[in-house]
Design brief:
The chain has helices at residues 15-24, 44-50, 60-64, 68-75, 92-97, 120-129, 165-190; strands at residues 4-10, 30-37, 55-57, 80-83, 102-106, 134-141, 151-158. With 195 residues, it is of the alpha/beta class. It has a domain at 4-105 and 138-153 and 176-190: Formyl transferase, N-terminal domain (Rossmann fold, 3-Layer(aba) Sandwich), CATH 3.40.50.170.
């Protein structure tokens, strides 16, 4: 039976990375084998260490001016790349190396509230300011533009008049933790032909 190796890219606390790691712990077909991070102080590195998963700390030069990251991913036999709160735009060489195999999660209902600078609280503040009645998460493939890849799944939550950017952020985190790991699993099972 083929085992699919995934690498998680994250820039911050790593709560989504943690949920993904926990979800696949018991899987015989999908394994988290590497965490890639671009911030030396990010808590996700501690989470990886606690789970005995190797981590790779990368610099902008590594990412944008060399093939080091792609080479490292190949050395771990990575099949799919998962972005879980990773804020850098993915370079073309990585997209070419993993076509339709890079999955991102966005804390809004794309195509609304996407694009450069639209991440984290910036998104929730914009959604609340616009007096939207609902928000949610979008799980999508990555291309060379921020938040414009093919949508895989969306999950929604309603917004009440008393919601603030902070309470909306909590609701969105709950959606992410509930739906992202299973969506990754479904996508890999449905799109693993020819790997």
């Amino acid at each position: 039976m083929k085992v699919y190796n995934i690498a998680i890219f994250a820039s911050g606390d790593g709560s989504n990375a943690q949920k993904i790691i926990e979800y696949f712990k018991g899987s015989s077909t999908i394994k988290v084998v590497l965490v890639v991070c671009n911030k030396p102080t990010a808590n996700v590195l501690n989470r990886a260490k606690n789970e005995n998963i190797p981590s790779l700390l990368i610099s902008r030069a590594d990412f944008y001016e060399s093939n080091r990251v792609t080479e490292q991913l190949h050395s771990y036999n990575i099949d799919f790349v998962i972005l879980a709160g990773f804020l850098w735009l993915i370079p073309q060489n990585l997209i070419t190396a993993f076509p339709d195999k890079i999955i991102n999660i966005h804390p809004a209902l794309l195509p609304a509230y996407g694009g450069k600078g639209m991440y984290g609280m910036n998104v929730h503040e914009a959604v609340i300011a616009a007096r939207e009645k609902e928000s949610g998460i979008t799980i999508h493939l990555v291309n060379e533009k921020y938040d414009e890849g093919k949508i895989i799944e969306q999950h929604r939550c309603s917004i009440s008049e008393t919601d603030t950017p902070q309470t909306l952020a909590q609701n969105i985190h709950q959606l992410e933790h509930r739906y992202f790991p299973a969506a990754i699993e479904r996508f890999i099972q449905n799109n693993s032909n020819g790997i």
